[in-house]
Amino acid sequence: MKILRLIIILLILINADNCTISYIPKIGVYDEALVVEGMITDQPGINSIRISKSQPIWKKLYPKPITGCKVSISDDLGKTYNLKETATLGVYVTDQASFQGVAGRIYTLHIRTTYEPVNLSYESLPMKMIPVPPIDSMYYEKMTIPQSSPTIEGCNIYLNTHDPTNNCRFYRWEYSETWEFHIILDFPNKVCWITNNPSEILIKNSSLLTENDIKKQPVLSITNPVDRLSVKYSVLVNQFSLNEDEYIYWERLKNTIDQTGGLYDMIPAAIPNNLFCLEEPNKKVLGYFSVSAVSSKRLFIKDKFAGPNTQYSKCLNDTVFTTRPDTVTYLGTIIKVLSDRVPPGIIYTNDRGCVDCTTRGSNIKPVFWDSGK
Q: In the prediction, which pLDDT does 353 show?
């Protein structure tokens, strides 16, 4: 879950060591805060809510999962949907057969805890699911990596979107990138794929624009193309609708992560949220209950980019296939016996990645891979 990862990164940054002498203020009783991370969308499938309690920053601990909670979601039509606790501690999910968010509906999250000395009830503010327009187009532009010699090319990826209805004025994007790569030596497990899901915060406010028309919105910049762009690359972008309050939440979270480090910077407790405790309204709650419609688009890149692929260049000298292992005294350990070769031999290498791409990725082709040219 991305909000939780961002909160963890934020806590680590706040407590990061530096060259100055650390100042640790005297603190009395530490007041734990409920941490809620969750989103419901209009897409089919399971929606998840993760519930935990915060830990003191100076302990450098992950938030502790809270089990045994009663969790439900209600809508403005009077319907209530109960969530089920999963085997993953602190994670509660909707029933995909009975629940799917609908654009235009208003949803409220309800939580009843069982871990505190006195069981407490928490709620979110009612959140309207705002319709989201489709992503009109995605494209890339090549660029030269600065100070690269010989010349190495990467690319910048952009999207265009617009909403003629003006229902959606605040946007957020997430992306997942996948690329195919090949090891250069002819051994089994030669072709693999890597998928990466960054936690970057990408948001845009179009309310100040004359028209609700977003052009050339940056998604990501590929400045480390080896070996991302060597064979075939794909990026899937999800576009989320936000209301103004949630946009402010993401904006402040982004600013805090970007700026944290000084004594007077914002701390996580200063980031707004939409959750509160019914019995104790002043009790602090961290996180946000997000309600978003989603539209998605995938871009494939299969092009020639300038620059050598040096990912496996060392393998040419560090790997050998031989039927006479007694003659190899300068390399590492036995990796694999190739019994399907005639005559059978042995691979010696200093790096298993030279002969087995699954050390970095998966040799199972993604189901969507052949849909891109």
A: 85
What mean pLDDT comes out for the span 97-103?
97
Q: How far apart are the first and last CA of the chain?
A: 31
Question: Alpha-carbon distance 215 to 137, whole Å?
Answer: 10
Q: CB–CB of 51/71 below 8 Å? A: yes
Q: What is the distance between the alpha carbons of residues 281 and 271, in angstroms, rounded to a whole number?
A: 17
E strand or H helix at 348: strand 345-349
Contacts of 188 (CB under 8 A, 6+ apart): 338, 356
Q: Residue 59, Cβ neighbours under 10 Å: how many?
A: 10
| CA-only gyration radius of the chain, Å | 25
| Amino acid present at 84 | K
**Whole-number pLDDT of residue 28:** 47
| Percent of the chain scoring above 70 in pLDDT | 80
How far apart CA 66 and CA 92 sit, in angstroms, is 10
**Rounded distance between C-alpha atoms, residue 155 and residue 138, angstroms:** 13
Alpha-carbon distance of 95 to 102, in angstroms, equals 15
Secondary structure class of 369 (helix, strand, coil): helix
Q: With the C-alpha atoms ordered 325, 328, 330, 331, is the resulting torsion angle positive or negative?
A: negative
What is the DSSP code (8-state) at residue 22?
P
Structure tokens at 155: 């690319």
Q: Write the DSSP symbol of residue 60.
A: T
Q: What angle do CA 71, 74, 76 make, to 5 degrees?
A: 165
The three-class DSSP label of residue 16 is coil
State the angle between helix axes of 2-14 and 244-259 in degrees (0 to 180), rounded to the nearest 10.
40
Give, in degrees to the nearest 5, the angle at Cα 165 between 164 and 170: 90
Q: Which of 358, 354, 363 is nearest to 312 (CA)?
A: 354
Average pLDDT, the chain: 85
Mean pLDDT of 334-348: 66
